[in-house]
Amino acid sequence: MFDEVKTTYDAGRPERPLVIAYYTVDTPYQHEAESLKVSLEAVGYSYDIRGVPNQGSWQKNTQLKAQFVDHMLAAYTGRPLLYLDVDAIMIKPPIALDDLPAQGADIAAVHCLTKPGQLGTELLSGTVWFGNTKPCRRVVQKWLHINAQYPEVLPGGRKAWDQRTLEMAIKSIASCTFVELPQEFTYIAELTTKRDPHLNPVILHTRGAKRFKHIMDHQPGYAK
User: Fold this and answer.
1) Is 197 exposed, middle or buried (0-12, 13-18, 19+ CB in 10 A)?
2) How far apart (Å, rounded) are the C-alpha atoms in residues 215 and 169?
């Protein structure tokens, strides 16, 4: 599924992680991919972006994320990967990522901001650095398992969003070294702006879910 439609670009910067992303073919997300590609080329990041068949709903499409990451970790053995949601735009280079291998990191991401300077408890999975280490790959295997176990709803009634199942997987692998990334690396249009207007985006997420979830789920109106 992941090898049928792909676009690659080599920026000639092997010290930087390879950016990976996927989109659903013949949906609005396909157009988002083009904006992401332009932004990556402008700031000098190599990428491998792939098109996949629409699975029929926003939830099913987002739960392909774990499968996609697992596939790409195997395709680029030993190379750190930077996963971005395809509605992202890289404004400037996230150069702090270059130091993560030397820090012994396995996975790095951002937790949501509830107030200025105060992290929330929910992981944000729009920008995730995967070190492609053994603990990293163990986390991804656990992530796949949790998604299969809870395809729609988690124990307690919360929806089984991919960021929630990834957080569960990270916490279940004791050998995984997790590094918190700056909020600017998952800067969410409207939300981050309201919660901390002093921040400037490095990787801007344009809220494709709010704009397109109703289309993917064949419903009227915007998602909340």
Assistant:
1) exposed
2) 30
- Calculate mean pLDDT across residues 27-56: 92
Asked whether the beta carbons of 127 and 87 are under 8 A apart, the reply is no
For residue 181, what is the DSSP state? P
- Dump strand ranges (E) for 76-195: 81-84, 88-90, 107-115, 118-130, 178-180, 187-188
Let me know the angle formed at the C-alpha of 194 by 192 and 197, rounded to the nearest 5 degrees: 80
Tokens of residue 48, six digits: 């491998």
pLDDT value at position 213? 39
Helix axes of 134-149 and 162-172: crossing angle, nearest 10 degrees: 130
pLDDT in tens, 139-173: 999 999 999 999 889 998 998 999 999 999 999 99
Tell me the pLDDT tens digit for each residue of 106-147.
999 999 877 667 677 789 999 999 999 999 999 999 999 999
Q: Which amino acid is at 123?
A: L
- Residue 174's contacts (CB-CB under 8 Å, 6 or more residues apart) are none
Strand 18-24 to 88-90 pairing: unpaired
Q: What are 94's two structure tokens? A: 């996230």
| Longest Cα–Cα distance in the chain | 48
Domains assigned to the chain: 5-216 (3.90.550.10)
Whose structure tokens read 């709803």? 153
Helix, strand, coil shares of the chain, percent, nearest 5, are 40, 25, 35
- Strands of the 18-24 sheet, one edge to the other: 5-9, 47-52, 18-24, 81-84, 118-130, 107-115, 178-180
